[in-house]
Design a protein that fits this description.
The complex is a heterodimer of chains A (about 500) and B (about 475).
Chain A lengths: L9 H16 L14 H14 L3 H12 L5 H13 L5 H15 L6 E5 L3 E4 L1 H5 L5 H15 L4 E6 L6 E2 L3 H8 L19 E5 L3 E4 L5 H13 L3 E6 L3 H4 L6 H14 L4 E4 L2 H13 L9 E4 L8 H8 L9 E5 L8 H13 L5 E5 L4 H16 L4 E4 L4 H10 E6 L8 H8 L4 E4 L2 H7 L4 E4 L4 H13 L1 H12 L6 H13 L5
Helix pairs in contact in A: 1-2, 1-3, 2-3, 3-4, 4-5, 7-21, 9-11, 13-16, 14-19
Chain B lengths: L3 H11 L10 H9 L5 H12 L5 H14 L1 H10 L11 E4 L3 E3 L1 H5 L6 H10 L9 E6 L4 E4 L2 H7 L12 E4 L3 E4 L6 H13 L3 E6 L3 H4 L8 H12 L4 E4 L2 H13 L9 E2 L14 H10 L7 E5 L8 H13 L5 E5 L7 H12 L4 E4 L4 H10 L2 E4 L8 H8 L4 E4 L2 H7 L4 E4 L4 H13 L1 H10 L8 H13 L4
Parallel strand pairs in B: 1-5, 2-3, 2-6, 6-7, 7-8, 8-9, 10-11, 10-13, 11-12, 13-14, 14-15
Antiparallel strand pairs in B: 3-4
Helix pairs in contact in B: 1-2, 1-3, 2-5, 3-4, 4-5, 9-11, 13-16, 14-15, 14-19, 19-20
Classes of the chains: A alpha/beta (about 500), B alpha/beta (about 475).
C-alpha cells in the first residue's frame, strides 16, 4: 500500500487534530469559546478535563476517537478512563496522549477529519462495499439496504478504512457495489487505487446496524463501539454454524465468529434470518448470565425469497413426458451440505430398481470435491445416470429446474435454506431435512422431510417421490400456493424490528 | 509391532471367530462374524486396520461402501489405501472397560486448576468394576496410548504399575471419560469419533465456555480450537459442569445445537468441592513475611495468572485509589503464565515510582501461596468470567475474606460465606470496599466469621458423583 503520510506536514496533522477535537467539543459539553483557534493543546486540555469530570465510557470512547483518529479497542477505552482517573488535572493531556499514541500510530494517515452522525442510522456495509463477492450475506445486504435508501429511511452507509482505523463514507464505486448491484454504473473491479475518503464517520448517541458479519480485525473496534460508545447496536444474525458445526469449518472462521460474539453480547438487538437462527443466538444470550450480562433482545424476521420472473418462466416448462425423471441437488460443495449422503441414498434407490437421473450443481474447493467426483465417475462407469455440474450459468440452472421432478437439499445445518425456498418458488417440490431452518422453510408446504443423517430415510423418500405421482402433484400444488415473500417485505420488517423501542 | 492383517485377525477373534489364520483370510473371517453394516463395527474395523482411532468422516464412508460392496471388499479397498495398511510399533488393544483420557494432566507440571480435578477424580475412582484404563493422546502416533509406569505414577502414585509396554487403545462399547480440556485438533476429532461411533457412553467434565462467551479475553487461536472441542462435546452423552455458572454456559450452548439437529449431552452439574489443599502453618507464615520483607502493614493478596480476564489492571487501579485515600497495606500479586502484560507492567512501574508497596511473585511453590492466604487481611478476585473461582474457595477455606465479582460462580461461591461482591468493571467500587475492610476491623471480623461456615464437601464426594454419572444409562 502506498504511504500517503510522506506528503503530509506536521502542520497539517496538527490542523486535522484540531478540527477533530473541535468536531466533538460540543458533544462532550466542553466550553471552548475562549480557546484560541491555533492552540490545539489548550483545546485538548479542555476536552480532557471535561471527560475527566464526567468520565462515562461513551465520553472516553469519543475523546479517544477524536484524539487518535482511530476507533478504540475495548481495552483502549478502559485504559483511557484509568489514566484520566489517576492523573491530576494539569497532567490530563499527557494521560490522553499516552493512552492514544499507539493507536494513532497505527492509522494509515494522520490527517483525517471527523464528522459526528447523531440522527441517522449508521449502517456498516464494509464487506459489500469493498468486495465483488456476492453470495448469502452479500445478497441480503444488496437487496435490503438499497430499499432502505430508496424509501427514504434516514441511513448513513459506512465502510472501514483499510487498516480498520474507523468508519468512513463510501466512495462512488463502493456505493455502486452496495446500492446498484443489478444495474452497475461502474465496471466491477476488486482493487481500487483510491484510498477512500479521509473523513471518519463517528456515530454518536444513535443507532448502528450491522447487516454483515464483520471481518476479524474489525471485531475489536466494533465490540468497543457496542460496549462503550453509547450507540445502540443492532445486528442481523445469520447462523452459528462456525461454532455449532465447527468440525467442518476452518479454525479461523470459528475464531472470527467467537470474536463476532463479543460484539453481539453488547448489542441491543439481534434479528435472526429464521426462527432457527434466532434460537441459536438465544442460546448464546442464555450463556451470558454467568458473566453478569443480559445480552441483546432476540427475534426473527425470515429472509425474502424472490426468483427472477425469467427464471420462473423457464422453470415453468413441464418436463417432457417419457423422459427419465431428473432429481436436482443444488448447493456449494462442502461436508455440511451432505451431498455424500444424497449420493449414497441414490445408490440404494438405484439398487432397489428406481430409474432416475441425479445431477449435482454447485462449486467447491478441490479438497471438498475431489473424492466426491471420483465416486461419481465410478458410478457413471457402472452405468448410473449421475452427473456433477460446476460453474453452471443461471439460465442453464433454471432449465434444469424445469426438467426436475423434485430437488434434494438435505444439509446438516443452515441458517435459512435458500435452495429449498428457491426451488419452491420455482414450483419444484423438495426433499429436505426435518429440523432447524430447513424444517422451518418446509413448513409452508411442497416438501418431504427426512433425517439427513439417515441414508435409508433419504433413499426411501427418494423412491417414494419418484413413484408417487399423487404425492408429487400435491406438493406442486402446495408449492404454487406459497405466498411470495418479497425483499420489500423483508427490508420493511427488518427496519421495523431494529426501530422498535422495546421488545417483550 | 503388528501388521494390519494381524490386527484384523485379532478383531475376528474379538468378534467371536475361532481358528483365525494370521493371513489375508483374516479379512473373510472378520466379514463372517461382523453382522449387518453398522457404524460402530465400521469404527472398530477401520481402527484395527489403521492401528488408531480414525477421524469421524472415515466411518460414514466405510459403512456406505460396506452396504453396497460388502465388508470383505471394503476392507480390501481400505487396506490398499496409501497410509492405512501400515504396521504399528505397539500392540493394539480393544478396550471395553472404562477409559479415561488424561493427556494434559500427564503432561502438565501444574497441580492446580483443571489438572487437579482430573488427578483427584481418577485417584478416587472405585475399582469395584475393574481398574479404568488411563490413556493419553500420542501426537507422533496420532493414537491414544496407555500410560507408562512413570506417567501413571504422576497421576495415581498409589496404583501398582501395570508392568507392560504401552498399548494403543481403541475404546469400544465401554465408558469413556474426558476429565480435562482438549484442544489439539486431531485429538478432538478422534474424541468425536469415540463419542459418536464407539458404541459406548461418553462423559466430559465441563470447566467453562469462556473462549467462546468471552473471546475478547482469550489467547489467539483458543476460540477456534475451543469451537472444535465443543462440537465434539455435542456428541457426548453427558457433560458435568463444575459449577452452576459453568452449567449456565453449557446449557446456553446446548440450546444452540438444535439448528444442527443435535440434542447435545445431558448437562449435570457436579459442583467442585469447597476445599483447599493447603495446610496452615503459622511459624512458616511468619518466616514468609520476613523473607518477602512484607513489613507489618496489612497484606492484600491477589492470586491468578496475569491475563486480561483476571482484571488485574482494575486491582492495581483500585489499590492506588485506596493508597491515595491514606490506607497502608502491601499488595501481593501471585501468578505466572502471563500474557498481554504490557499495560500491567506499565501500571506496576507507575505504582513503584510512587513508592507503593506492591509485590509481584511468579513461579512460587504452593506452600508460599497457602502461607500468603493465611497472612493476608483479605484477597481480591474481581475476574470478568470464571467457571469456578478457585482463588475464592482457597481464600475462604483459609478463613480469609475475599472481594470478588457480583455474578456467576464467584457470587455463588462467595456470597454469605465471607465474600464482598463488587462490579469488577468499576475500580471505585472495588477501592471503596478495600478501604472499608482496611479501616474497619469489625467488618473484616464479621466476614471471617462467615467464612467459618463453609459447605461440607470433599473430593471423595466429587469423584463418586462423576463416576456414577459416567455409568448412568441415557434416559
Amino acid at each position: 500500500m502506498a504511504a500517503p503520510t510522506a506528503e503530509i506536514t506536521d502542520a497539517e496533522v496538527e490542523a486535522a487534530l484540531h478540527r477533530r477535537l473541535a468536531a466533538v467539543a460540543d458533544a462532550l459539553g466542553a466550553d471552548t469559546a475562549d480557546v484560541p483557534a491555533d492552540t490545539t493543546v489548550a483545546l485538548l486540555h479542555r476536552l480532557a478535563v471535561a471527560v475527566k469530570a464526567e468520565p462515562t465510557p461513551a465520553r472516553a470512547w469519543l475523546l479517544f476517537t477524536a484524539v487518535a483518529g482511530v476507533f478504540p479497542a475495548p481495552q483502549d477505552v478502559v485504559d483511557l478512563r484509568r489514566r484520566l482517573d489517576l492523573s491530576a488535572e494539569p497532567a490530563v493531556v499527557v494521560a490522553v496522549l499516552g493512552a492514544t499514541i499507539a493507536a494513532a500510530a497505527r492509522a494509515s494517515r494522520p490527517d483525517r477529519d471527523l464528522v459526528l452522525v447523531r440522527s441517522e442510522v449508521v449502517v456498516d456495509v464494509n464487506f459489500c462495499a469493498t468486495h465483488e463477492h456476492n453470495t448469502g450475506i452479500q445478497r441480503v445486504v444488496r437487496e435490503t439496504v438499497p430499499r432502505w435508501v430508496e424509501s427514504g429511511r434516514p441511513v448513513r452507509l459506512v465502510a472501514w478504512t483499510a487498516e480498520g482505523a474507523g468508519m468512513r463514507e463510501l466512495t462512488d464505486r463502493e456505493s455502486d457495489r452496495v446500492l446498484s448491484w443489478n444495474d452497475r454504473r461502474f465496471a466491477p473491479a476488486d482493487r481500487e487505487d483510491e484510498s477512500g475518503p479521509r473523513v471518519l464517520v463517528v456515530p454518536w448517541q444513535t443507532d448502528v446496524v450491522l447487516p454483515e458479519v464483520p471481518l476479524r480485525h474489525l471485531c475489536e473496534p466494533l465490540a468497543a463501539l457496542a460496549a462503550f460508545s453509547g450507540n445502540r447496536v443492532s445486528v442481523v444474525g445469520y447462523d452459528a454454524i462456525p461454532l455449532v458445526s465447527a468440525e467442518g469449518q476452518r479454525s479461523e472462521e470459528s475464531e472470527r465468529f467467537a470474536h463476532y460474539l463479543s460484539i453481539v453480547k453488547h448489542a441491543r438487538r439481534i434479528v435472526g434470518i429464521s426462527e432457527s437462527a434466532a434460537e441459536e443466538f438465544r442460546g448464546f444470550v442464555d450463556a451470558l448470565a454467568s458473566q453478569g450480562l443480559s445480552g441483546p433482545a432476540v427475534e426473527a424476521v425470515p429472509l425474502a425469497v424472490e426468483v427472477p420472473a425469467r427464471a420462473r418462466a423457464v422453470a415453468a416448462a413441464a418436463p417432457a413426458p417419457g423422459d427419465r425423471p431428473l432429481v436436482l441437488c443444488v448447493g456449494s460443495h462442502e461436508p455440511r451440505k451432505n451431498q455424500e449422503a444424497v449420493l449414497a441414498a441414490a445408490e440404494l434407490a438405484w439398487r432397489a430398481g428406481a430409474d432416475f437421473e441425479l445431477v449435482f450443481v454447485g462449486g467447491g474447493s478441490r479438497a471438498a470435491t475431489a473424492d466426491f467426483d471420483r465416486r461419481v465417475a465410478r458410478l457413471q462407469r457402472g452405468g448410473r445416470a449421475v452427473g456433477v455440474r460446476r460453474g453452471l450459468p443461471d439460465a442453464e440452472l433454471w432449465s434444469l429446474y424445469a426438467r426436475s421432478r423434485f430437488t434434494v437439499f438435505v444439509s446438516l445445518h443452515e441458517g435459512f435454506g435458500l435452495p429449498v425456498a428457491e426451488s419452491l418458488a420455482l414450483g419444484v417440490p423438495v426433499l429436505t431435512s426435518d429440523y432447524g431452518a430447513l424444517a422451518e422453510v418446509s413448513a409452508a408446504g411442497g416438501c418431504v422431510t427426512v433425517d439427513p443423517r439417515d441414508d435409508d430415510a433419504i433413499g426411501a423418500a427418494l423412491a417414494r417421490m419418484l413413484t408417487d405421482d399423487a404425492l408429487l402433484e400435491r406438493l406442486r400444488v402446495e408449492a404454487a400456493g406459497i405466498p411470495a415473500r418479497t425483499w420489500d417485505d423483508y427490508a420493511a420488517e427488518l427496519w421495523t424490528a431494529f426501530a422498535a423501542e422495546d421488545l417483550a | 509391532m503388528t501388521t494390519a492383517i494381524q490386527r484384523l485377525a485379532q478383531l475376528a477373534r474379538f468378534l467371536g471367530a475361532t481358528d483365525v489364520p494370521a493371513n489375508r483370510s483374516a479379512i473373510d473371517a472378520v466379514a463372517a462374524v461382523a453382522g449387518a453394516p453398522a457404524h460402530d463395527v465400521s469404527y472398530l474395523v477401520i481402527a484395527m486396520i489403521r492401528g488408531a482411532v480414525p477421524e469421524p468422516q472415515a466411518i460414514k464412508r466405510f459403512t456406505r461402501d460396506w452396504r453396497t460392496e460388502g465388508l470383505a471388499a471394503t476392507i480390501r479397498a481400505e487396506l490398499r489405501g496409501r497410509r492405512f495398511g501400515r504396521s504399528v510399533d505397539l500392540p493394539v488393544r480393544i478396550a471395553t472397560e472404562t477409559v479415561i483420557d488424561v493427556t494434559e494432566t500427564v503432561a502438565s507440571r501444574f497441580t492446580t486448576g483443571i489438572q487437579r480435578v482430573a488427578r483427584e477424580t481418577v485417584a478416587r475412582w472405585s475399582h469395584a468394576d475393574g481398574r479404568p484404563l488411563l490413556v493419553r493422546w500420542d501426537r507422533r502416533r496420532s493414537a491414544f496410548v496407555t500410560l507408562d509406569a512413570d506417567q501413571l505414577s504422576r497421576i495415581v502414585p498409589d496404583w501398582e504399575a501395570p508392568g507392560r509396554t504401552p498399548e494403543i487403545v481403541i475404546p469400544f462399547r465401554g465408558t469413556f471419560l474426558l476429565p480435562e480440556l482438549a484442544v489439539d485438533e486431531r485429538r478432538v476429532s478422534r474424541l468425536r469419533t469415540i463419542a459418536r461411533y464407539g458404541g459406548g457412553r461418553s462423559t466430559a467434565i465441563g470447566f467453562d465456555c469462556i473462549p467462546i462467551t468471552s473471546a475478547e479475553t482469550a489467547a489467539a487461536g483458543m476460540p477456534g480450537a475451543f469451537s472444535k472441542y465443543l462440537s465434539t462435546l455435542a456428541r457426548f452423552d453427558a457433560v458435568a459442569p463444575i459449577s452452576e455458572a459453568a452449567a449456565v454456559e453449557y446449557r446456553g450452548w446446548r440450546r444452540m445445537l438444535a439448528g444442527a439437529g443435535i440434542t447435545g449431552p445431558r448437562i449435570e452439574v457436579v459442583d467442585l468441592p469447597f476445599t483447599s489443599s493447603g495446610e496452615s502453618d503459622p511459624d512458616r507464615a511468619a518466616r514468609i513475611r520476613d523473607e518477602l520483607a512484607l513489613g507489618d502493614a496489612p497484606i492484600v493478596l491477589c492470586v491468578g495468572s496475569h491475563e486480561p480476564r483476571k482484571n488485574h489492571l482494575t486491582v492495581l487501579h483500585a489499590s492506588e485509589l485506596a493508597w491515595r485515600d491514606g490506607r497502608e497495606f502491601s499488595l501481593v500479586l501471585v501468578g505466572g503464565n502471563a500474557w498481554e502484560t504490557e499495560r500491567f507492567d506499565r501500571l506496576i512501574g507507575y505504582l513503584r515510582r510512587r513508592d507503593r508497596r506492591v509485590l509481584t511473585l511468579s513461579g512460587v511453590g504452593d506452600d508460599v501461596i497457602w502461607d500468603l492466604y493465611d497472612l493476608a487481611s483479605f484477597t481480591l478476585f474481581p475476574s470478568l468470567n470464571e467457571g469456578f473461582g478457585l482463588p475464592v474457595v482457597e481464600s475462604l477455606s483459609h478463613g480469609t475474606p475475599v472481594i470478588t465479582s457480583d455474578f456467576g460462580s464467584m457470587r455463588s461461591l462467595g456470597e454469605g460465606k465471607g465474600a464482598v461482591l463488587v462490579d469488577p468493571a468499576d475500580p471505585h467500587d472495588l477501592a471503596a470496599r478495600m478501604i472499608e475492610l482496611l479501616g474497619r476491623p469489625e467488618a473484616l471480623a464479621a466476614l471471617r466469621a462467615e467464612a467459618q461456615n463453609l459447605p461440607d464437601s470433599d473430593w471423595e464426594g466429587y469423584a463418586v458423583a462423576i463416576q456414577s454419572l459416567t455409568t448412568i444409562p441415557a434416559p
